[in-house]
Amino acid sequence: MQRQVAALLDVNGEAGVSPRTITEMLGRTDDGNVRNTLNRLRELGVVELVPGSSWPQLWRPTALHRKGLDQAP
User: Fold this and answer.
1) In the structure, what pLDDT confidence band is assigned to residue 72 with cuts at 50, 70 and 90?
2) Which tens digits make up the pLDDT trace of 9-54?
3) In the chain, fewer beta carbons within 10 Å around the N or the C end?
4) In whole angstroms, what is the distance from residue 68 CA to residue 28 CA?
5) Would you say 26 and 8 are in contact if contact means Cβ atoms under 8 Å apart?
């Protein structure tokens, strides 16, 4: 599930995406598992909360893991 969530965040880039949207995109109904996955990915340094987002929380890949957004080809 971690890879699926990380892949969805990568597609959505810097704007971020909410846990509910991720759950829906995965065709699941268990927001809690998605939130736990996001928290674990944050601990691993893969994702971060978008600064200034409070409700809904918006998540995105960390700068190191954003493909093509912060790097030159």
Assistant:
1) very low
2) 877 777 889 999 999 999 999 999 999 999 999 999 999 999 988 7
3) C
4) 29
5) yes
CA distances from 11 to 1, 22 (A): 16, 11
3 state SS of 15? helix
Residue carrying structure tokens 């949207």: 21
* Alpha-helical runs (H) found in the chain: 2-12, 19-25, 31-43
Contacts of 52 (CB under 8 A, 6+ apart): none
Per-residue pLDDT at 68: 56
Distance between CA atoms of residues 71 and 73, nearest Å: 6
Q: How far is CA 58 from the centre of its chain?
A: 7
